[in-house]
Amino acid sequence: MLRITGLSAFPITPSDADGRVDAAALRRLLEPLATAGVDSIGLLGSTGTYAYLSRDERRRAVEIAAETVSGRAPLLVGIGALRTDEAIRLARDAQAAGAAAGLLAPVSYTPLTEAELVAHFEAVAGEGDLPLVIYDNPTTTHVRFSPELIGRIARLPGVVAAKCPAPEPAAVGAGVSALRAAVPAGFPVGFSGDWNATEALIAGGAAWFSVAAGLFPQPCRAIVRAVEAGDADRARTLNAALEPLWALFKAYSSLRVVYALADILGLCRAEPPRPIRPLPPEVRAEIAGTVRGLSLS
């Protein structure tokens, strides 16, 4: 049975101005992740701009990734869509193309009730032929999951893990404990929000769903392995070394920063999908200078 733990790396999905995925660039981004031994790859997550790509291009991205990774890491694939039937189709596409699980964010223009959210997950889990990860990302979906709602959905057949925003340090103990108490025993609850993720792991989080690991898997993997070894002091020391990167993420958004970094590092020349605009030259210079001062290999 698929168990989603450890480090999950979330790369961008490079594409052209018409939204066509750049296969060569995507392979260049994915190969180092598989080689580094990440525990899973989060394809078409929010950093992967799934909401800006057509169904055909989303399916094509999964096919490219499955061929590139070739079984070296499970692919967790974003299948969020406004309509339940479309999310089901995206789940089936992802499964057929080689995904191990679907990342289901409840994208909705109209605010959803808890009953509607449960029914949405139940339908996609039941008809999509793909294990599901609850994708709690309130900054993009404007849906906020309570621990109790996470617990209800976690008990649905086919739901195998949850991806939640990491609590702020002052609230991390209580926040992680509340989530773990709400879900079935052994159900993996992992965290995003790179700057708070280390403390969430130390408090008992099962996985780190990391934007930074999409470009820099080695230092992120070292943090996860230190936590797994019970060495919280080392994990905090390694995390502190990345604070300049976290400051960039918080100041300019992790999405915009990693797009700039992919170009700065020579991996690809992709720009974020419009209407998102690339960062201005002076900010790119700041990012380049900051990263030069870090040990990220």
Name a few traits of the molecule.
297 residues, alpha/beta, TIM Barrel, eight-stranded parallel β-sheet, 12% strand, globular
Lay out the secondary structure:
Layout: E1 6-9, H1 23-36, E2 40-43, H2 55-69, E3 75-78, H3 84-97, E4 101-104, H4 114-127, E5 132-135, H5 138-141, H6 147-154, E6 159-165, H7 172-182, E7 189-192, H8 194-202, E8 207-210, H9 217-228, H10 232-241, H11 243-252, H12 254-264, H13 281-292
Parallel strand pairs: 1-2, 1-8, 2-3, 3-4, 4-5, 5-6, 6-7
Report a brief summary of the structure.
By secondary structure, the protein is an alpha/beta fold.
What does this protein structure show overall?
With 297 residues, this protein is an alpha/beta fold. Helix content is 48%, strand content 12%. It has a single domain, classed as TIM Barrel (Alpha-Beta Barrel). It has helices spanning 23-36, 55-69, 84-97, 114-127, 138-141, 147-154, 172-182, 194-202, 217-228, 232-241, 243-252, 254-264, 281-292; strands at 6-9, 40-43, 75-78, 101-104, 132-135, 159-165, 189-192, 207-210. It has an 8-stranded parallel sheet. It starts with 5 loop residues before the first strand and ends in a 5-residue tail after the last helix.
